[in-house]
Amino acid sequence: MFTGLIETTGKIESVQDTGDGKIFKVITAWKDPDLKNGDSISVNGACHTVTSFQESGNKFEFYSSYKTLELTNFGSFQVGTKINLERSVQPHTRMGGHFVTGHVDLTGTILLSEEKDSGKVRRFVISHDPIFTKYFAVRGSVTVDGISLTIVDSKPGEFELVLIPETLIVTNASEAWKVGAKVNLEVDLIARYLEQLGKYK
Fold this sequence. Notes:
Layout: E1 8-17, E2 21-28, E3 40-43, E4 46-54, E5 59-65, H1 66-71, E6 82-87, E7 106-116, E8 121-127, E9 141-144, E10 147-150, E11 153-155, E12 158-163, H2 165-170, H3 173-176, E13 182-186, H4 189-198
Antiparallel strand pairs: 1-2, 1-6, 2-5, 3-4, 3-6, 4-5, 7-8, 7-13, 8-12, 9-10, 9-13, 11-12
């Protein structure tokens, strides 16, 4: 489980194709590095397991299966790609974002990226499969590349976000979210469970 509050960013140092998936090596700089083998980590919003680490986790590896590569934007990762990182929550962790499972539901595409309010914020419009529109409620939560964000507008097949400078600084959004870029989306967990419960009334 994660919160959607990005702890740090990292960069892909190497990519190894295994035939059925890929092994990614990441270099980063945690404020308090403590990764170990078997730890769960959110990489651009997708939960992965640390398979190897060095320097207390400032260098680590994880494996993505072919299915993960199909469902996420990981297939486009190359050396130098900037990624969002968050370690799994602990009992004392503040829930400053929302409940994030790390199970990516779909990818979206950046349709628009523009500065607003004299550059104080940046507005993004993201397109997605219209079948998921029901999950994207105005003022509701969504996870985009692992970031917990609030939807400011929603229409069939697209929704709008406004990111403040702090979010742009501590995440990969300012660098990676160019028009046409693919982003990982996870719908709100509560909405998903409510829909499931409603099927059995």
